[in-house]
From TrEMBL:
Pfam families: OEP (PF02321). This is TolC family outer membrane protein. The lineage of its organism: Bacteria, Pseudomonadati, Pseudomonadota, Betaproteobacteria, Burkholderiales. It is found in: Cell outer membrane. Belongs to the outer membrane factor (OMF) (TC 1.B.17) family. Residues 1-21 form the signal peptide. Keywords: Cell outer membrane, Membrane, Signal, Transmembrane, Transmembrane beta strand, Transport. It comes from the Bacteria.
C-alpha cells in the first residue's frame, strides 16, 4: 500500500517528463503574457501616461455651448382687454386682447483661455513627474518579473533534484537493507545492522513524501506566475561553470544601486513632485487672469415688442484676486511641506535599501561561487568515501552504519551543490536588478546554461 501510494505521487509529480522541456526564456514569455502582477503594473503605467494630457488641458482654452428653447403662452381674459397692465415683455402698457404665444430660441458659445493661473502650470509640471514615476515603477515591475520567474523556475529544478536524490538514496538504502538481511541470515552480521538499515530506509521514505509534496508546491508557485501548469523544465548542464560579477568590486554595484535603481528613481521623482505641490498650493494666494469670449444668439417669435433676432458678441479679460478663504490655503501649504519632508525621507530609505540589496546580492553571488567550488570538491570526496566504505563493509572493516552515513553524506552534498548553483544564478540577477541594469537580454546567458 505504501509503495503504491509513493508511485502515484511520483507519477503525478513527473507526469510531463516525456514532453519537450521548456527553458527559462519559454517560461518568461508565458509570464509576460499571463502574470497578473505584471499585467496590473502594465495597466498602472497606462494610467500614468494619461497624467500629462490631463495636466496640459488646464493650460488650454475651454470652449462650451449652452442654450434653451422656451415656449411662453399668455391668455388675456375678455374683461381685461384694453386695460392698463404688464405686458409679456415686462413693460407696462395696454393689454391686447386674445393673449400671446411666444417662442424663444437662445444659445451661447463661450471660450475661456487661462492667461495666468500658477496652480495650473504647476499641476502640468507635476503631471510630467507623475508619468515618469509610473514609468519607473513599470520598469521595476519588469525587473521583478524576471527575478520572480527565475526564482520560481530554479525552485522547481531544486525540488526535482531533491526528489531525484532522495529516490536514488532510497534505492541505495534498499540495497543496503537487503544486504544486511542476507548477512544476518547467514550469521555474518548482527540484527543491529538490519535495524539500522531499516531505520534508514524508513527515513528516506518519509523524505520522499516530503520531496514530492515540495515539488508540487514549487510547481504551483510557478503556475501562479505563468497562468498554466508548467511542463517539464530544462535542467542545468552537468558541471556548468558560473561567471563572477562584472565588475568584481562591490562599490560600483552599490553606487549604481543608490542612483540607478528604479525604486530610487521613482522616489526621486516623487520628491520633485512634492516640491511642485508646495508651489501649487501657494498659488491659492495668487491672482488669476483669463481671456473670456462669448457669442449669444437669441431669436424670439410671437406678438411682443422683443420679437426678432438678436446677436451679441463679447470679448475681454477676467481677473480674480483671493482675499480670504478661512486659512485653507495656508493649511494646505503646511500639509504639502510636511509631505515633501516625508518624500525626502522615503527617498533616503529607498536609497539605503537599494544599497543593502546590492550588497546582499553581491555577497550572495561570491559566497555562492565559493560554495559551489567547495561542494564540487566535497562531491568527489563523498563519492570516494562511499566507495571506500562499501569496500570496507564487504571485507568486514566497516559496519553497516558507516555505509549508510556515507550514502547520506553523498546525496546531501549533491542536493546542496545544485541548490548553491541555483541560488548563485538568481543572486546574479538580483544584483543587476538592485543596480537598475537588469534587462530581458540578461536571461539569455542564464538560459544558455540549461540543457536544450
Amino acid at each position: 500500500m505504501q509503495k503504491s501510494l509513493i508511485a502515484v505521487l511520483i507519477a503525478s509529480a513527473v507526469v510531463s517528463l516525456n514532453a519537450q522541456a521548456a527553458d527559462l526564456l519559454d517560461v518568461y514569455k508565458q509570464a509576460l503574457a499571463n502574470d497578473a502582477v505584471f499585467a496590473s503594473a502594465r495597466a498602472s503605467a497606462a494610467v500614468g501616461r494619461e497624467k500629462v494630457p490631463q495636466g496640459r488641458s488646464l493650460l488650454l482654452p475651454t470652449v462650451g455651448a449652452n442654450g434653451a428653447i422656451v415656449k411662453n403662452d399668455t391668455d388675456v381674459s375678455p374683461w381685461n382687454e384694453g386695460a392698463l397692465g404688464t405686458l409679456p415683455n415686462g413693460t407696462t402698457g395696454i393689454i391686447p386682447g386674445g393673449g400671446s404665444n411666444l417662442r424663444t430660441n437662445e444659445y451661447t458659445l463661450s471660450l475661456v483661455q487661462p492667461l495666468f493661473r500658477w496652480a495650473n502650470w504647476q499641476t502640468y509640471q507635476q503631471s510630467k513627474l507623475l508619468q515618469a514615476v509610473s514609468e519607473a515603477q513599470f520598469a521595476q515591475a519588469q525587473q521583478d518579473l524576471i527575478t520572480r520567474v527565475a526564482q520560481a523556475y530554479f525552485d522547481v529544478l531544486a525540488a526535482e533534484d531533491t526528489l531525484e536524490s532522495t529516490r536514488a538514496q532510497k534505492t541505495a538504502t534498499t540495497e543496503q537493507l537487503a544486504s544486511a538481511k542476507r548477512n544476518f541470515e547467514v550469521g555474518t552480521q548482527t540484527i543491529t545492522d538490519t535495524h539500522e538499515a531499516q531505520a534508514a530506509y524508513d527515513l528516506v521514505v518519509a523524505q520522499e513524501f516530503a520531496a514530492v509534496n515540495d515539488l508540487e508546491v514549487k510547481r504551483t508557485a510557478l503556475q501562479a506566475i505563468i497562468g498554466t501548469a508548467p511542463s517539464a523544465l530544462a535542467p542545468l548542464k552537468p558541471g556548468v561553470a558560473l561567471a563572477s560579477p562584472e565588475p568584481a568590486l562591490i562599490d560600483p554595484w552599490v553606487s549604481s544601486a543608490e542612483s540607478q535603481n528604479y525604486g530610487v528613481v521613482a522616489a526621486q521623482l516623487a520628491l520633485e513632485s512634492a516640491k511642485r505641490d508646495i508651489s501649487r498650493n501657494r498659488a491659492g494666494h495668487y491672482p488669476t487672469l483669463d481671456l473670456v469670449a462669448n457669442s449669444t444668439h437669441r431669436k424670439v417669435n410671437g406678438q411682443t415688442n422683443s420679437s426678432g433676432t438678436t446677436q451679441n458678441n463679447a470679448i475681454g479679460v477676467q481677473w480674480n484676486i483671493p482675499i480670504f478663504n478661512g486659512f485653507a490655503v495656508t493649511s494646505r501649504v503646511r500639509e504639502s511641506i510636511a509631505l515633501e519632508d516625508k518624500a525626502r525621507n522615503d527617498l533616503e530609505t529607498t536609497r539605503r535599501n537599494a544599497a543593502q540589496f546590492a550588497r546582499q546580492a553581491y555577497l550572495g553571488v561570491n559566497s555562492g561561487l565559493a560554495q559551489v567550488k567547495a561542494l564540487e570538491a566535497a562531491e568527489v570526496s563523498s563519492t570516494s568515501a562511499l566507495e571506500s566504505n562499501k569496500l570496507g563493509y564487504q571485507v568486514g572493516v566497516r559496519i553497516n552504519i558507516d555505509v549508510l552515513n556515507a550514502q547520506r553524506q553523498l546525496y546531501s552534498t549533491r542536493r546542496d551543490l545544485s541548490r548553491a548553483r541555483y541560488d548563485t544564478i538568481v543572486n546574479g540577477l538580483r544584483l543587476k536588478a538592485a543596480a537598475g541594469s537588469l534587462r530581458e537580454d540578461d536571461l539569455i546567458p542564464v538560459n544558455n546554461l540549461l540543457q536544450k
